[in-house]
């Protein structure tokens, strides 16, 4: 009886290996601190911090290679949230990386657009729709306001328009405790 049980277990394990199953699966997505830092960052992917996007900046912060105050879109509110998470002293936004501006989205003057596609190539979040030699348009719900589409446009047909933040347009991912603190709670 014991031998039959061992044979059945062996066959079950062998079948599992053949079919690609395992009883224990490990999934490691990286450093959980990087994920927590990245969740605080505004996800504009603008590169103003000196890193090519929010995740690389979060990784550098977690490794101690970058200061918490290099993100103009996050501003002082983001730096405060990062300071609290990291257990370090708050430092105001380092203005060498830029200044905090109101949330905005790009707008293309479609009558002026020549369809060069340079803005499409510059957009880190694929918020611009168009084709070569055709007018382009912005998918406003996807635009992070990073302004990376502005410099390559040869006809200056792109402007940044302020966004009134409300419950539908608010994209920043600050922890709840900071929102409460900002409201005086």
From TrEMBL:
Q: What class of enzyme is it?
A: translocase
Highest taxon of the lineage? Bacteria
- Gene Ontology CC entries for this record: plasma membrane
Give the protein's cofactors: [4Fe-4S] cluster
Where it mainly occurs, coarsely classed, is membrane
Pfam hit, one: FeS
Gene3D superfamilies linked: 3.30.70.20, Electron transport complex subunit B, putative Fe-S cluster
Q: How is the cofactor bound?
A: Binds 3 [4Fe-4S] clusters.
Subunit details: The complex is composed of six subunits: RnfA, RnfB, RnfC, RnfD, RnfE and RnfG.
Q: Which family does it belong to?
A: Belongs to the 4Fe4S bacterial-type ferredoxin family. RnfB subfamily.
**Function as written in the Swiss-Prot or TrEMBL entry:** Part of a membrane-bound complex that couples electron transfer with translocation of ions across the membrane.
Q: What is this protein called?
A: Ion-translocating oxidoreductase complex subunit B
């Amino acid at each position: 009886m014991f031998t039959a049980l061992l044979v059945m277990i062996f066959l079950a394990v062998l079948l599992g290996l053949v079919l690609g199953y395992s009883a224990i699966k490990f999934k490691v997505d990286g450093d959980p601190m990087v994920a927590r830092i990245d969740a605080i960052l505004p996800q504009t992917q603008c590169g103003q911090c000196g890193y090519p996007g929010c995740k690389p900046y979060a990784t550098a912060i977690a490794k101690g290679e970058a200061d918490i105050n290099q993100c103009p879109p996050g501003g002082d509110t983001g730096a405060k949230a990062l300071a609290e998470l990291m257990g370090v002293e708050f430092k105001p936004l380092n203005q060498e990386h830029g200044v905090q501006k109101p949330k905005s989205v790009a707008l293309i003057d479609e009558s002026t657009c020549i369809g060069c596609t340079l803005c499409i190539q510059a957009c880190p979040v694929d918020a611009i729709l168009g084709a070569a030699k055709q007018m382009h348009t912005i998918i406003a719900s996807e635009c992070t306001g990073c302004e990376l589409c502005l410099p390559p446009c040869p006809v200056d047909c792109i402007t940044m328009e302020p966004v009134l933040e409300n419950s539908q347009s608010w994209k920043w991912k600050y922890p709840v405790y900071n929102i409460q603190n900002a409201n005086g709670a």
